[in-house]
Amino acid sequence: MVKYSRLSGLVLLLGSILTFESCINNSRYTLEYVKPETEGFSSEKLESLKTHLKMSGASSLILVADGKKIFEWGKTRKKHTVHSIRKALLNSLYGIAVTEGVIDTTMTLRELGINDIWPDLSENELNACIADLLKSRSGVYHHAAGVSDAMLKNMPERDTYKPGEHFYYNNWDFNVLGAILEQKTGKSIYELFRDEIAIPLGMNDYKGSFCSIDGESDDEKIPDTDGFYQFEKSKSKYPAYHFRLSARDMALYGQLYLNKGNWNGKQIIPAKWIEVSTKPYSVYNSAHGIAYGMLWYISMPMENRDNKSFYHTGLGIHMLGIYPDSRLVLVHRVNTETDFKFKSEDLNKAIDLVFNSIIN
To answer: Which range marks the domain in which residue 272 is found?
Structure first.
C-alpha cells in the first residue's frame, strides 16, 4: 500500500510538472511577420542593412513596427550577454516593486543598511536615496564590480559631490540597486524577471537559470545560463548582475515598453513609471541631445529631430531602442562572448540604414 501511494504521488507530481511545462510552452509568443512595405519600410533598402550586418560581424537584428516583425536577420534565438542593457531590464522590476509599495525610492542607503567593504561609505554617501541611484546621481564613488577602464577614468574622488548633484554613469549604483531589490523582495533578480516579465510576455528562451562567477579570475568562462552574478570581492561586496537574452526575447521586452507597459490587455509595468523613468534627468551630451533618465538613455528632440526616443546599449554595440513616434523597436546583438570585430561605428551605420529604409 505504501509503495502504491508513493508511485501514485510520483505520477501525479510528474503529471503536474508536464502540465505546467505544457502551459509555459503554449504561452510562448511569436511576433507576426509582415512585409516591410505594409509598415512603411523598403524591402530593397533593408537588403543593404543585411549586407552591412554580415560584413561587420553582427549576430542578429530585429525590427518590430507597430507590434509586427518587419525584419529579422541572424541568430535571433541565440542567447548572448546583454552587458549594460541589464540596467534597462532592471527598470521594469523597479517599476513593479515601487507601484506595489515594496520599495520606497526616498529611502536612503543609511535607512536600508547598505554599506560596502573598506573604505566604508561616508556620512555624505549614506544620504543617497534609491531615486539617486536610479538616476546614477548617488555621489557614491566606491569601487565596484564590472567597471571598465573608461568608467574608472571619469570617476570622481570620494565625497566630491553630494547625492543628487552630479551624474556619473556608475556601476556601483546599478549593482546596489540589484541588491536592494533582492533585499526588499526576497527573490533573486533572475527569478523576479522570469515571474514578472518573461512568463507574462511569453518569452521563448529565458527560463531564469543563474549562477555566480569570480570576475577576478582569468579561468572563469561565461556560463550557459540566463544570468550570472559577477563578484569582484576585492572591490565591493555587491556583484554585477548579468543577463543573457536572445534577440527575439529582447524584442518582446522592447515592445512591452512601446506599449507603455501593457501586454494583451494586462498592465505589466505602470505606464506612469515608464513616463517618469524616461525623462531626461541628466543631459550629458547636449550636442547630440543625449541624456540619462532612470536606467534608460534618452534621445531628446532637437532642431533636426522632432521626437523623443529611449534606448540602452551594451559595450556600445548591443542595442535595444524604443522609438514611440515611429512605433518601432530595434534590437541589435553581437556575440561578445567570443572574439568579435564589430565596432560602435558599425552600430551607428546599422541604425542609419534602418531609418534610411523608411519610405517617405
So the answer is: 34-78+247-360
